[in-house]
Each structure stands twice: as structure tokens, then as C-alpha cells.
Amino acid sequence: MTDEVEWWDYDDAAEMAGAVAGDIAFIIESAIDARGGAVIALAGGKTPMPIYEKLSQTKLDWKRVTIVPGDDRIVPLGDPLSNVTAIGKIFIPKGARVIPLISEAAKDYKAAGKAADARLGDLHWPLDLCLLGVGADGHTASIFPGPDYDEAVNGPKERRALGVMPDPLPAEAPVPRVTLSLSAITTARALMLAVTGDAKRKVIETAIKQGPASTYPIGRVLADAELPADIHWAP
Ligand SMILES: O=C1O[C@H](COP(=O)(O)O)[C@@H](O)[C@H](O)[C@H]1O
């Protein structure tokens, strides 16, 4: 458990994208050298897309890279809200393996979470990197207040993914989700956040001050992280 974080401030989102892409590339290369492959979880949403565009331009042995979204919205593949679609469009052409969290065949969000957990069991754990985003409401990945919150943050350590029904549903993507569990996130060999804007910065600062009893999901995650997290921020 750590309450240590390091803030990295940039002048703008483009500068942040270059720096974070460089850090991720270094982590991928180190994992390939050490273990023959890299398994990373990447945040969805809009903020990290310039980072992914930059990263995809880096010369790496992409065939040895497995990417899983840190969370996804339960929508069909190709839907504008689908995190795996956005990530896959950028990295599949490079040769990376992109593993979806969503199974369209699942009968409900709980079953979708169970299917994702089973699928992730085939990967090499722990993650080499988990890159998180943060919502203005303090959610991270898809760990939201609601009926599944306790399972997401206090569930069995070996559970890597689960289905969640945010309550209230977030306006920007009002659908059930599948998310990595707090345990899957906090055991990653490297934990990074990439966020923009003063409002999110204030939420994160408050969450850190609140510590393990934080009312914000990001506060719980940072308080439980096994290693110091790097928080990359641009206005
Ligand atoms: O719903 C989600 O929101 C967060 C934040 O997204 P952003 O668009 O404000 O950057 C994101 O990290 C998460 O992956 C996503 O599913």
C-alpha cells in the first residue's frame, strides 16, 4: 500500500502525449527484454487518444505486445463509445494483440464481467503497465459508485475483471461496463494516470488527501497501489 505519487506537469496535451508515449514505450521494451512480451492495460475515453497516436508511431516489436482496455462500455464493437474499438483501430494495424473485455453474447453485464475475467486468465500477470484515466466524478477505469462498487474494490484478489452498473449512469456514456478490478490495477508493475484540466486535478488532489477512506474510486486505487503512481497532467 502506498500514498506516494509523483506529478508530471506539462504545458499542453500534445507535450503530455509525447512524454507519456515515451514512458510507455520504455516499459514495453523493458518487458519484452525481461519476459519476451509485454501485457499492458490502457485507459479508454478521449483523453489518452493523442498518447496512443504518438505511441503507435514508435518502432517497437508490436507482435510481442498484448493490450487490454482497462475498462469498456457494454456496446457493440464499432460503437463510438467502445473503448476496444478506439484502441484496436490504432494498435491492431501495428501488429499488437488487442483483447476485448466485452462479449456481445453475454446475457447481462455480470455475465460479461465473468467472461472477461476468464479470458484475462490466459494472459501473463501481473500487468506490465496499467494506464488509467479519471472522470470528473472521480471514477477510474469503470470503477464507479453503485451496486458493484464493493466487489470492484474489495473482491477476491484473483478476480481481474467484473461487470459493473454505475449508479448514477454517467452522462457521457450511460451504459453498464466491464472493468479491471482494483486488485488487477494496483498489482501492475507500473501505474500511470494521464489527465487534463483543473477540475480533474482537484478531484485527484482531494482523493489523495482523503486516503484509503476516499469517497472517490481513484482515491481508493491510489491508496492501494503497491508502487508509487505517476500522474501526468496537462491543462
Ligand atoms: O468512461 C470512461 O471515462 C474515463 C475518463 O474518460 P475521459 O474521456 O474523460 O478521458 C476513462 O478513463 C475510462 O476508460 C472510460 O471508460
From TrEMBL:
Supply one GO BP term.
pentose-phosphate shunt
EC number(s) given by UniProt = 3.1.1.31
Record function comment = Hydrolysis of 6-phosphogluconolactone to 6-phosphogluconate.
Does this entry carry the keyword Hydrolase? yes
Write out the similarity annotation.
Belongs to the glucosamine/galactosamine-6-phosphate isomerase family. 6-phosphogluconolactonase subfamily.
Q: What is the lineage of its organism?
A: Bacteria, Pseudomonadati, Pseudomonadota, Alphaproteobacteria, Sphingomonadales
Q: Which reaction does it catalyse?
A: 6-phospho-D-glucono-1,5-lactone + H2O = 6-phospho-D-gluconate + H(+)
Molecular function as annotated in GO: 6-phosphogluconolactonase activity
Keyword annotations of the record:
Hydrolase
> Which source organism does the UniProt entry give?
Sphingomonas panacis
Matching InterPro entries:
6-phosphogluconolactonase_DevB (IPR005900), 6PGL (IPR039104), Glc/Gal-6P_isomerase (IPR006148), NagB/RpiA_transferase-like (IPR037171)
Q: What is its EC class?
A: hydrolase
Name listed for the protein in its UniProt record: 6-phosphogluconolactonase
Pathway membership, UniProt: Carbohydrate degradation; pentose phosphate pathway; D-ribulose 5-phosphate from D-glucose 6-phosphate (oxidative stage): step 2/3
In what residue span(s) does the Glucosamine/galactosamine-6-phosphate isomerase domain sit?
12-223
Per its UniProt entry, which superkingdom is the organism in? Answer: Bacteria
Name of the encoding gene: pgl
